[in-house]
Structures are given as C-alpha cells and as structure tokens.
Design goal:
Blueprint lengths: L6 E2 L4 E2 L4 E2 L4 E3 L3 E2 L4 E2 L4 E3 L1 E4 L4 E2 L4 E4 L13 E4 L4 E2 L4 E3 L7 E4 L4 E2 L4 E2 L4 E2 L4 E2 L4 E2 L4 E2 L4 E2 L4 E2 L4 E2 L4 E2 L4 E2 L7 E4 L3 E5 L1 H6 L4 H15 L5 H8 L6 H11 L8 E2 L7
Parallel strand pairs: 1-4, 2-5, 3-6, 4-7, 5-8, 6-9, 7-10, 8-11, 9-12, 10-13, 11-14, 12-15, 13-16, 14-17, 15-18, 16-19, 17-20, 18-21, 19-22, 20-23, 21-24, 22-25, 24-26, 27-28
Antiparallel strand pairs: 26-27
Helix pairs in contact: 2-3, 2-4
C-alpha cells in the first residue's frame, strides 16, 4: 500500500491499511490511522495525527511551519485531525505556534482545492470549506458551516455553527451561530434553509429568529439589546446563539446592515 517512490520517516506510525501514493513525503513522527489515503506528491510534515478514513489530496501540505516571522522552528507543535476528513489538492494546513499546541480539525470536514488554514486554526465537525478560502492564524470554525470559495478571514475571528459565508467574502469580525455573511462583515440574517435542513424544529427556528431580531433589529446598541434579551428565558439552541454574542473576541461581532436582506 506504500508506493516505492514515497519517502517515509522511520518515526512515522502508519497503519497497514493506509495507502501512500507516488512521491509522498512523510517527514516526522506522524500518526496515521486505518484506511487513510495520501495521494501523490502530498507532504505530511512533523507531528501530524490523522484519524481513520482521511483522504489527503495531491500536493497538499499538512503540518508545515507557520507563516509567523517570530516563530521558533524548534517549537514542539503539530496538526491533529479526526476521522473522515477529505483534504483536496494543494490544501495547506500549518502547525501551531504554541509549544505543545496543535492546529486542529474535527471529523468529517470537506476541504476543497487550494484552501489554507494558518497556525492554531480550530475547525469543528462536518464543515465544507470551498476552493481557495484563506483562514488566518487562530481562526475558529464551529460545526456544519459552509465557507464559500475565495473567502478570507482575519486572525482570531470566530465562525459559529450552521453558518454560511459567501464566496469572496471578507470576515474581520465574529459571525454568530446560524448566520449568513457576505461581502465585508455584512451579516444578512439567519441561515434559515440550512437550519431547516439540519432538522431544527419550527419552534426552534422561530425562537432563534426572535433572539436575532431583538439583538440586531431592535434599534438598540448591542449592550442594550443583550440586556433586553436576558429579560426572558430561552431554550438550548437560542441560548447558544445568545451566549456566542455575549462573549465576543477583540474583533467584535458582525452587525446587520440596513440595506441587506434576509439570508
């Protein structure tokens, strides 16, 4: 299952069922679980841990050094991914800048051609990241979100669960759970179709919309709106949406533009 032209570091731990294609380089103490496939010319660099059933596309590079001018290349860091991730051609995923740290992916993500994940990025489960999307260092993405092709993300930005980001969008602020974003930090509403497809009940969707309208469409500033929102009780999914907004990063939270329609 290992092509004769592949170069494998003797420290690597590779399950016997793994398929390693022509001219692959595995350079370091990688741990590659059962049923993975690493296609031609891909490179696995350093401490990379890969769960079962992952596919690494042609010429992808996983675990290379961060693009950080202050980075000490002797730092012990790596990349860790769960099971069933599909990483297509020419994707680059850089290792953490933190000693003992990892850039991480959960399970079942589909990462399309030419996407880039910078150091210390954290990706949840079952996300789709389209071609040439660029995630800077320390960006975090929840679960079940879709990121359009060519979208770019400032460092330290958070994207929640069940979000949708338009292709070529530019995000420099946090995007709450369940929301749609386009252009530059323009939040256009809730991912209504995505929530319905995901099995959110009519009551759950209505409650999330009520919380969204109170926070972003009441005419109040964010602090005032959150005070009003906390005057009533919310069930779990709406509460998750509210809590995300209550604890923003230094980047702040996207807002709804008056000239934008519902997503």
């Amino acid at each position: 299952m290992i092509h004769s032209t592949a170069i494998i570091d003797p420290r690597a731990q590779i399950h016997p069922s793994v398929e390693v294609g022509p001219y692959v380089v595995i350079d370091g103490a990688a741990e590659i679980a059962a049923e993975c496939r690493i296609e031609a010319h891909a490179q696995i660099v350093g401490r990379v841990v890969m769960g079962e059933g992952c596919r690494i596309g042609r010429a992808a590079v996983i675990g290379a050094e961060p693009q950080d001018l202050s980075f000490d290349r002797n730092t012990d860091s790596g990349v860790r991914m769960g099971a069933r991730n599909v990483i297509r051609e020419h994707v680059t995923i850089h290792r953490s800048t933190q000693s003992g740290g990892d850039t991480t992916l959960g399970n079942g993500n589909f990462i399309m051609v030419g996407a880039h994940f910078g150091h210390d990025v954290k990706i949840g489960d079952e996300n789709v990241v389209a071609n040439a999307a660029l995630l800077a260092g320390h960006v975090s993405v929840g679960c079940h979100s879709f990121i359009g092709g060519g979208a770019v993300f400032h460092q330290f930005v958070r994207i929640g669960d069940y979000c949708m980001v338009q292709g070529n969008g530019s995000l420099g602020k946090d995007l709450p759970h369940y929301c749609v974003m386009q252009r530059v930090n323009r939040m256009t509403g809730l991912n209504v179709i995505g929530l319905k497809r995901a099995g959110f009940s009519t009551a759950e969707r209505a409650e999330i919309k009520s919380a969204f309208d109170l926070i972003f469409r009441s005419g109040r500033n964010l602090s005032q709106a959150l005070t009003v929102v906390r005057e009533k009780e919310w069930t779990a999914k709406a509460e998750k949406f509210i809590q995300f907004i209550e604890v923003p990063t230094k980047r702040g939270v996207c807002s709804v533009r008056r000239d934008s329609g519902e997503g």
